[in-house]
Amino acid sequence: MTNQSAAQQRALVVEDAVEIQEVVTALLREEGFDVRTASDGERAVEMARAFVPDLIVLDLSLPGLDGISVCQQIRTFSEAYILILTAKSDEVDKVVGLSVGADDYVTKPFSPRELVARVRVLFRRSRAQGPATPAAAVERTFGDLVIDPDAREVTVAGKPVDLTRIEFDLLDTLSASPRVAFSRRQLQEAVWGEDWYGDDHAIDVHVSNLRRKLEPEERTTRYIRTMRGVGYRMGEG
Q1: Per-residue pLDDT tens for 111-148?
Q2: In the chain, N or C terminus with fewer CB closer than 10 Å?
Q3: Beta partners for 227?
Q4: CA distance 102 to 24
Q5: pLDDT tens digit string along 141-163?
Q6: What is the secondary structure of 148-196 as a DSSP string?
Q7: pTM for the whole thing?
């Protein structure tokens, strides 16, 4: 992402530590973002509604309403990319953050280079585009599951399923080549790009979220199969 390509993008930085808030704000402004800030959870939700950001950098340790609750509330009305900030030792927070709708995380202390790289990866593709896939963007059907790549819409038994951008991109990648067993690394490269800093665990959490939304009442997974020792592929539904 260049300064020019991010010129119209908005970012909300939610962080109560002034030093970190200032650093993140300065980095995002250098990337061309129009940046606003919030220092507590309640204010963050209010600003997310009013400012309508494209990116939210969200600290999980906030006074009042915590970051997990903020993420949950914002996800009910916003499709903004959410990048959470969490302490390096808080593995549980990372998992919970991703499970309630965050797209990625950065652990504290972080380098400016890492933060900027994570943001650039999230914004690599236009919002109107999914991951690059060899299949034509036609409606795909797997039993009751219907995927419309062009409209970025998903339905199960005729009912719409609300997915985050990352969840949709994962489903789009898998469904475009339904007979292919994708390794976690292949999914990382297809959805985030080769220079993504994340780990396999993040992929597993996003896939788990996706499965839960597609099959909330099922104990088995019809649509996304785990290929032991390899990764994931689409099921037949």
Answers
A1: 998 899 889 888 875 443 444 444 445 789 998 999 99
A2: C
A3: 231
A4: 18
A5: 998 999 998 888 999 999 999 99
A6: ETTTTEEEETTEE----HHHHHHHHHHHHSTT--EEHHHHHHHHT-TT-
A7: 0.69
